[in-house]
Design brief:
about 30% strand; alpha+beta; six-stranded mixed sheet; globular; five-stranded mixed sheet
């Protein structure tokens, strides 16, 4: 099981306006289930997690952390060279990333012009390589069906509370309408993968997985600096397998 969240962000848009105008307050796409760039938000949540698992934690030197979910190294002597925002693999939207460790974080990212911005608020992911089996729920891998993994994700996401999102000082309403569960498969690099790094498990995949939680898709930003602040909490759910990686809350 992997849970994540963070806050706040400072966003810069590289957009150049063709004519002077008063910039509107950026806002999420209005309909949570309406497709954006050819995918629904649940489908984008799956694509986001696929990208999380596709990126190695370390560069080939073994000491430079390049994964966007990290703000600090795991070992003494590690250095950080991790972007915290990247285009989706197909280039259709721009992904902001979270943190495996949570806490109060501040990040600065330059967002490309004309791209929707997909943001994980508080979410959870369950797959056998990161979910421990009974009876002790301590050491992965598990041997669960995808339906069981989806049930674990739902149970964990049901515990999410205290959601709050604001963009440029204006609260984003109706956050609870933006819960987007999904089932999917992911693959990982052969070396320095997430499950190798956290659990010592080689699991290149494809691995069945399930996610649940809250995500927002923002309309393309106008040129200039924007501040996105979001937070939430998700305690360990004792009715499902225990977190094998640190869960996050604020």
């Amino acid at each position: 099981m992997i849970c994540e969240s963070l806050s706040p962000w400072r966003l810069f848009s590289s957009h150049r306006s063709l004519s002077p105008r008063s910039p509107p307050v950026p806002r999420p796409s209005r309909r949570p289930m309406r497709p954006v760039e050819g995918r629904t938000l649940p489908e984008w949540s799956a694509e986001w997690w696929k990208s999380v698992f596709a990126i190695p934690v370390y560069a080939p030197d073994g000491s430079t952390v390049i994964h966007p979910q990290f703000d600090a190294g795991l070992n003494e002597g590690d250095t950080i060279d991790a972007p915290h925002g990247l285009p989706s693999p197909d280039g259709r939207v721009f992904f902001l990333y979270g943190s495996f460790f949570g806490g109060d974080l501040e990040r600065t990212v330059t967002v490309p012009a004309g791209k929707h911005v997909f943001v994980p608020i508080v979410n959870t992911e369950w797959s056998n390589p990161d979910t421990a089996p009974p009876p002790d729920f301590v050491s992965p891998p598990g041997n669960y069906t995808q339906a069981e993994l989806a049930a674990f994700a739902k149970a964990q996401a049901d515990t999410i509370t205290d959601l709050s999102v604001s963009l440029d000082g204006q609260d984003i309403p109706e956050i609870l309408q933006n819960r987007h569960p999904a089932q999917f498969q992911y693959t990982q690099p052969a070396e320095r993968s997430i499950t190798q790094t956290f659990f010592g498990i080689d699991a290149p995949g494809p691995n069945e997985s399930a996610t649940d939680g809250y995500y927002l898709m923002f309309l393309p930003l106008d040129e200039g600096e924007h501040t996105l602040i979001f937070s939430g909490s998700s305690p360990d759910n004792s009715d499902t397998p225990r977190c094998s990686a640190p869960s996050t809350s604020r």
